[in-house]
Amino acid sequence: MTNSLIPCSYEQTLLKPRILHIGFGAFARAHPMVYLHHGLVAEGGDWGVVAARLNSGVDALDSLDAVQGRYHIAEAYGDTITLREIGLLCGTCHPARDGVDAIPALIASPDMSVILLTITEKGYCTKDGQLDLTQAAIQAELDGGLPTTAIGVLVSGLERRRAADLGGITILSCDNQPDNGALTRAAVLGFAEELDLNLAEWIRTHVRFPSSMVDRIVPAMTDDSHTAVASALGRDDPNAVLCEPFRQWVIEDDFANERPPFAEGGAMLVADVQPFEEMKLRLLNGAHTTLAWLGQLLGYQTVADCMADKELRALIRHLMLAEQAATLRPLEGIDLAAYADELLKRFENTRLRHRLDQIASDSSQKMPQRLFAPIAINLEAKREWSVSALAVAAWIKGLGSLPPVPDPRQDELRRAALCNDPVAAVLSLPSLVPDALRPLAEFQAAISVAFERLQGGAKATVTNTAEELRR
Ligand code: CS2
């Protein structure tokens, strides 16, 4: 085992609370914070971060406070673990501990310049690209209740910021959604418009919502990963996160004011993020979701277990290159075959134990961008999409036969998956399959065929499909 430890080289006491991160979990610690860390190492500066959580537990923040916000990132592959000490936090904030006004007050503090979001797909409370006004939590907030959703908290903070006559601010989404900046903007504006049209106008003028594509595989921490970090570090760090060495962040260059040193820390700033987002959402996340369901039906637990199955690995490579890559616009300087092979190597990382049931959670929020959108393009182009069909069929089969995983639509999905015709029942649920795809008879027919095959056994289906694709 080769271990190295790189201590933090900038002065934490010089940092000011200029960035607020809402949804401060493992991914936040291991991705955007690592970019900022490298930026501070390279350039210095005073960009400190306040770590906030909303509905998830406060313990993780208390635990950071107990060590002045310092924690380690362990980048692991094969026999090598590189530990980095991260020391850029200025404090933490949680409404349950600090009061409901605490996060809005931070948004309206003069030094605050950028708000980062990792709130997962469902945290945006949208439906069909707009704020979903029918969601109970949104309704309660709009009826005068305390802000509890990220969108409500953001608008409450922006309202105070406007009242305090402070300048604009940037809200930067770091979640796996296409056009995540535009989606955040639509949700925030949708909420503000219900409250006060002048506030909505102020937001339009003063707040920027750049889109970004984020990539780093950061599985939930387990006892094993804590033990691996402790043995590499020589002591326990309860706040450490173990992840892969790879990281990528492509950010739309659209900031309201000064930009934190993300680019200096390795991020790419571009005019248009969309082609990068589509590439990553379809090749990486599309493959992940396929593995999550098909892999579980095969009895595997982790992504790396799936990669040891040669036939499944071949299907995933086919999905990436023949089905998903075919739907992308050409991206200058990117070799998609090399990108796919690098993804497969990343998936093989046995140090991560990236659980399939973790990836399977919230699938109703992931299917549209990861599988349905590319299927629609392939159908239109009359291209083959057999592995994508298998992925959707595996999801429907898994919903009815595997232990349930968290999903905001879990109850209706399970009910539909246990009907006589689960394929028709699941695919016709409202706002799940895009309108352009749902009525196409060939869409449902292909998923039904794949579902029938899976009824005969997942292993035989994978073997036969791999054989058919080789021909
Ligand atoms: C995964 C992602 O859980 C999931 O849905 O597909 O978290 C994935 O690991 C990251 O997007 C990688 O960048």
Structure write-up:
The structure is a single chain. The chain is α/β, with parallel strands linked by helices. It has 2 domains: 2-271, 3-Layer(aba) Sandwich (Rossmann fold), CATH 3.40.50.720; 275-470, N-(1-d-carboxylethyl)-l-norvaline Dehydrogenase, domain 2. Helices cover 49% and strands 14% of the residues. The protein is built from 21 helices and 15 strands. The strands form 4 sheets. A 6-stranded parallel beta sheet has the order 6-3-2-7-10-11. Strands 1-5-4-13 form a 4-stranded mixed beta sheet, with helices on both faces. It has a 3-stranded mixed beta sheet with strand order 12-14-15, with helices on one face. Strand 8 and strand 9 (130-131) form a beta hairpin. The mean pLDDT is 97. The structure holds D-mannonic acid (CS2). The site of D-mannonic acid (CS2) has 10 residues, from helix 11 and helix 15.
